[in-house]
Amino acid sequence: MTTQSARYRVNPSEETIELGFVTIRFLVTGGDSQGTVAMFELLVAAREKLMPPSHSHDAFEETVYGIEGTLTWTVDGAPIEVAPGQALCIPRGAVHRFDNEKDEPARALSVISPAVLSPAFLREMAEVTAKAVNSPPDRERMIAVMLRHGLTPALPA
Fold it and tell me: Which residue range is the domain that position 99 belongs to?
């Protein structure tokens, strides 16, 4: 039997956020880790592309660990497949995005250090995408949310 104390809890900030074809399961926030790390799981449907624009972040690194399926991360223009058991560290300032180019869903763990990114960013992005019925989400609104939360959208190619 596993018990948890009030101080130490498994998945202390568990929250699931639907963002179009991506399900994000936030597990740890900066409030849980004294600002050192945030952690969330991504579940990406088969053959889907990320809706928000490519972006970078200057205040934190993002490390992605593949759990199931394969996600293709494009980092500074180079496509990199991350499969189960593989990790990719995306340094500050690197422009990146991810897509699932395969026929099966993919699941990955994302670790943000320091813990600058929070569920509030994902909730706001979910609101923007939910308002887009039968059309792409409002790019300008997505960019405004990204900027508010420390992400720098890349210019269209």
Answer: 15-153
Retrieve residue 157's tokens: 């190619």
User: Does residue 139 sit within a domain?
Assistant: yes
Of 115, 126, 150, 146, which is closest to residue 12 (Cα–Cα)? 115
Tokens of 20: 């179009």
- The answer to whether position 1 is within a domain reads no
Domain count within the chain: 1
pTM of the shown model? 0.88
Q: Residue 6 domain-assigned?
A: no
Is 66 within the bounds of a domain?
Answer: yes
Nearest to 48 by CA among 109, 102, 86: 102
Strands, E assignment, the chain: 15-19, 22-28, 38-44, 48-49, 55-56, 61-68, 71-75, 78-82, 87-90, 96-100, 106-113, 152-153
pLDDT below 70 — which residues of the chain?
Answer: 1-6, 157
